[in-house]
């Protein structure tokens, strides 16, 4: 490995494609151009890059810089955070971690069964903090629709921020039956969302279960989105559709995998629990995106 390159791991969380990049000990960052280059290669295509930097705050283990596949920076990525935890747990033998992100502090723990819980923080409901372009006293149902006025295809979403803005559209059938790849870009970039938004279709199947599919801001259709699952679970409880602990089946993930989301009443925090999976490791140039795989003897679950 040359001085210009760093180690990375290709991973996924419920199919959400993640690159965990080890930037510790360096002052530079993964460039937007490198992100776009990596995203354009089928072997390294990703939904989010989770770049691990040296901690900036006392009491934290790392600063996580998150990039979308279009090179823009994201505030939060729950599935990616689980991947970071698995990588660092394999490297250090530790089970608990505290990370700083643009969205704030995240605490996470790897359990004995290999699943990982991430404290995603408190949901934000105030219209100007989500943010929305118009004032709504009640953001559990805002005025927004796609389709004819008298027969909209999607309408009246719940809006919430989980460190990033989300709009949850409630549907009465399998979210996979909707043409989200057509509606997603229109809704993500709707004037209602000055910072754009993650767009999720959610079907409640039981008081403690729902099925979701997400068009992710800056990434498009993804196989899974952890913060969107949290946003949907919180919005389900907030609107009386579900309880505060929900199994969220991600319709687009391989084999329809699920996350467990709990919106804790005692402290208002949202905890997401689910798996992460290592695929392969390599090295890359964070300035250009040039990369190569590690040899089998060098490969492992660690991002370091």
Automatic annotation (TrEMBL):
Active site positions: 77, 225
One Pfam entry name: DAP_epimerase
Reactions catalysed: (2S,6S)-2,6-diaminopimelate = meso-2,6-diaminopimelate
Species of the source: Ciceribacter lividus
Main location: cytoplasm
GO cellular component: cytosol
Name under which the protein is recorded: Diaminopimelate epimerase
Functional description taken from the UniProt entry: Catalyzes the stereoinversion of LL-2,6-diaminopimelate (L,L-DAP) to meso-diaminopimelate (meso-DAP), a precursor of L-lysine and an essential component of the bacterial peptidoglycan.
Gene: dapF
Region (Disordered): 282-304
């Amino acid at each position: 490995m040359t001085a210009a390159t760093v180690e990375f791991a290709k991973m996924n969380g419920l199919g959400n494609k993640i690159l965990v990049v080890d930037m510790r000990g360096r002052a530079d960052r993964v460039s937007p151009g490198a992100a776009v280059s990596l995203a354009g290669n089928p072997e390294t295509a990703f939904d989010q890059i989770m770049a691990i930097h040296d901690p900036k705050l006392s009491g934290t283990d790392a600063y996580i810089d998150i990039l979308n596949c279009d090179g823009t920076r994201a505030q939060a990525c729950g599935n990616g955070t689980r991947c970071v935890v698995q990588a660092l747990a394999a490297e250090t033998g530790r089970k608990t971690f505290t990370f700083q992100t643009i969205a704030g502090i995240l605490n996470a723990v790897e359990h004995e069964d290999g699943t990982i819980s991430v404290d995603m923080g408190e949901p934000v409901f105030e219209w100007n903090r989500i943010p929305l372009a118009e004032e709504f006293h009640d953001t559990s149902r805002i005025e927004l629709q796609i389709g004819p006025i008298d027969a909209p295809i999607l309408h009246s979403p719940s809006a919430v921020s989980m460190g990033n803005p989300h709009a949850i559209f409630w549907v009465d059938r399998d979210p996979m039956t909707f043409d989200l790849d057509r509606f997603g870009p229109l809704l993500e970039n709707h004037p209602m969302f000055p910072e754009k938004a993650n767009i999720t279709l959610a079907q409640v199947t039981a008081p403690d279960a729902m099925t979701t599919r997400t068009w992710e801001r800056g990434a498009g259709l993804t196989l899974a989105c952890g913060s969107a699952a949290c946003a949907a679970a919180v919005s389900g409880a907030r609107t009386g559709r579900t309880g505060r602990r929900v199994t969220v089946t991600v319709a687009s993930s391989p084999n329809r995998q699920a996350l467990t989301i709990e919106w804790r009443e005692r402290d208002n925090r949202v905890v997401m629990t689910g798996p992460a999976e290592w695929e392969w490791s390599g090295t890359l140039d964070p300035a250009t995106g040039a990369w190569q795989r590690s040899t089998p003897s060098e490969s492992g679950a660690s991002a370091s």
